[in-house]
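Translate sequence into structure tokens.
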Amino acid sequence: MSEPEFAPPESVSSVAVVGTGVIGAGWAAHFLRMGFDVAAWDPGDGAAGRLTASVRHAWPVLEKLGLRPGASLSRLRFAGSLAEAVDGAGFVQESAPELLDLKIKLLAELDAAAPPGVVIASSTSGFLMSDMAVAASTPGRLVVAHPFNPPYLIPLVEVVGGRSTDPAAVAWAERFYRHTGKVCLTMDREVPGFVADRLQEALWREALHMVDSGQATVQQIDDAITWGPGLRWALMGPMLTFHLAGGAGGMAHMLDHFGPALLEPWTRLTAPELTPRLRDLVVAGVEEEAGGASIADLEAQRDGFLVDLLELIGKHRRA
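Result follows.
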């Protein structure tokens, strides 16, 4: 039996958010800002209170960034069950903990409970949909939609299907996310970690090596990115940045001139062993760098900066 066709993404008025940790709560805030009704569910004790607090905490910066017509905190409700959350939803966003067996079970339950023809997206940061959809009866509507924290401010979402995903579901998800203000990176094939996390992981591994070997402190590593390439990456990625590094000759000169340096032992992509010593060094270094600021303080600082940065990027792109 063929799966029902998907309704136009623009017709969706309600979204189910299943799993309301940091990422799920961020998705809820994003969809509320975009003017949707949001039904959320999470089996954790106190989840409803934490979700409400998280969304209220994010709301002032979202108001500064701009709300879509109809956007309101009053459109959030916490459902009493998974089935209640997805009942009548036009789209489902799953953001459960990153455990493969849990994802397999939950996606199968969502597939069984969600209305026919509704796309179900997983926020997984690394699992393949081909591996997560194995227990679903209609895997054709299951897609990966990997966001970046906080989802209510960072525009990027990586969209990719699995072996059994209907290409129409991937196209629908891309269209839906774009309709909600997201920037989509839609992948043609699955790869663990997708694109951005693989790039982040390479940098993260080298950073851990440098701390472990005493070559750099946590503060020095953050300063190196914040006051160096990070400033350029906010507007241009590493590829276009290196294109400029080649001068008038562009990337061709860059590769011809600096290509031999790729053979130099400058980086170590194999992860270091996360020993108790390395863990303590990183934790202590971050706490020292934070200077006593709480997580909430740092989140507020980050969110305010990101709003200003997004406005600045928009100004330059329009110009």
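Note: Strands lie at 14-18, 37-41, 76-78, 91-94, 120-122, 142-147, 156-161, 183-186.
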